[in-house]
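Hi, here's the filled form for the chain we discussed.

Project: internal
Contact: R.S.
Residues: 413
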Amino acid sequence: MGIAEQMARRAKDAAQVLRTVTPACRAEALNKMADKLIACKDEVLRANADDIANAGELTPAFKKRLTVDEKVFNYMVKRLQEAAALPDPVGRIIEARTMPSGLQVKRVAVPIGVIAMIYEARPNVTTDAAAVALKSGNAVVLKGGSESLRTNMVLAQAMREAAVEAGLPADAVQLIPSTDRADVAELLKQDEFIDLIIPRGGKSLIKAIAEGTRIPVLKHYDGICHQFVAADADVDMAVNVVVNSKCQNVAVCNALETLLIDSAASDVLVKSIARALQEHGVELRGCPAFCSIVPGCIPATDDDWDSEYLSSILSVKMVDGIRGAMKHIAEHGSGHTDGIITSSDALAAEFVTNVDSASVLVNASTRLSGGGDYGMGAVVGISTDRLHARGPVGPAELCTYKWVAVGTGQLRD
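And the returned structure, exactly as it came back:
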């Protein structure tokens, strides 16, 4: 029996215990985890420095995802504390009714059971996953990338110790402490013990996991996010929202990748947006109509409309009004996050109704489509699936439900 199967079996046992734990106990465990992280901060930072030193040559974007600095460390602590303070989702009555027979029927939120998280680079996923899983009463088995193993082991050990101090089983949080790909393959076979897999990483990783297991997988393939700028958009708002959507952090899944502009928009609006993006170092790849207006624009290819750049590149297309924008998004979007910038309530309502994405924003940056900005606290990722969860995945999304019926001797006629 390999280490992944051993951990999956122990996680199943831990999940049975977690079903009986009170909300106060779960909150205490999360707060103790935050305290433990603070106590071992120097050890975390040293381990992370070792990971970076031993990772070989890294791209700037990958190194940024791997690095735990003061800001990232404080973020991890804050997310654990925020999860502790959230309303507890377990036991929530989703609906209730009394039937004519007097039978009382209710649908109640319950933990899914055992969650496996397979992810790359970002050590903050280790703490986020533990926070969200425990808040929702689930046990979690973590498999991080080999490049962040030292950091993840320190984080996982601190959280296991905190769990025990709060009266939870240590195996509520487990990290597979290896760099062997065979352990991932073994983990994917544990459908008897694992109830859900959440991969977080590149498209190739997610596809390989989804195709290699019978366990349900919560997927997020691409973040090809759009903003549509209507002809009536306020110029200053449009500039600010577009620049923030693209430039605040280019290497994340809710960064803007394709800008759509109404062909009826004024040259002032188009050039103001283009100039602001270029001043922020963004390479613009545009359709012929856009390139004819904006100097220095590179002609876009067909591949650009289907590209998640995760860098300072933006494709731009002039479209025939809102219908043209919605048609383009339907053909090229990934179902992640799409937005509209407009002064018209009617246009906004039409866009919201017709664009089928996990998050649709009106007059706001695509960078806001996440757990923190939606008031959800820590999340384990953003799902572009339609089932079981869609959009940011927080504690409530890692619950399923059971039906409970209470009678006084009622029988079926």
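Let me know if anything looks off before we file it.
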